[in-house]
Design brief:
It is built from no helices and eleven strands. The chain is mostly beta strands and about 120 residues long. The strands form two sheets. Strands 2, 4, 5, 6, 9, 10 and 11 form a seven-stranded mixed beta sheet that branches. A four-stranded antiparallel beta sheet has the order 1-3-8-7, with no helix packed on it. A hairpin with a 7-residue loop joins strand 9 and strand 10.
């Protein structure tokens, strides 16, 4: 199992940047595919970005070109750099993990709030 704790959220004006971090504890962090999801008030949770064991990343169309996901297996951490933020990026951002053979992200953190104002 893996435990996840997010940090780095906050309030920023549209066009600004924020960096999120996710610290993982547990065994074999490098064996997990990591991802970020977000949930806005009144909306369903949505996928933001994913990074595989080898560092290959994929993004939701809404954040492509603005967000960058990365991981540091030596530090058991995954990051999300968010640039050119928009009001619609507001929400609770959650870090998630799954084993390669699993289809579902069974491990999630509590989340960190990101608020973008105009």
């Amino acid at each position: 199992q893996v435990q996840l704790v997010e940090s780095g959220g906050g309030s920023v004006q549209a066009g600004g940047s924020l960096g999120l971090s996710c610290a993982a504890s547990g065994r074999n962090f490098s064996g997990y595919v990591m991802a970020w999801f977000r949930q806005a008030p009144g909306k369903e949770r949505e996928f933001v970005a994913q990074i595989t064991l080898s560092g290959r990343s994929t993004y939701a169309d809404s954040v492509k070109g603005r967000f960058a996901i990365s991981r540091d297996n030596a530090k058991n951490a995954v990051y999300l750099q968010m640039n050119n933020l928009k009001r619609e990026d507001t929400g609770v951002y959650l870090c998630a993990a799954r084993l390669v053979m699993q289809a579902r992200y069974d491990y999630r953190g509590q989340g960190t709030q990101v608020t973008v104002s105009s």
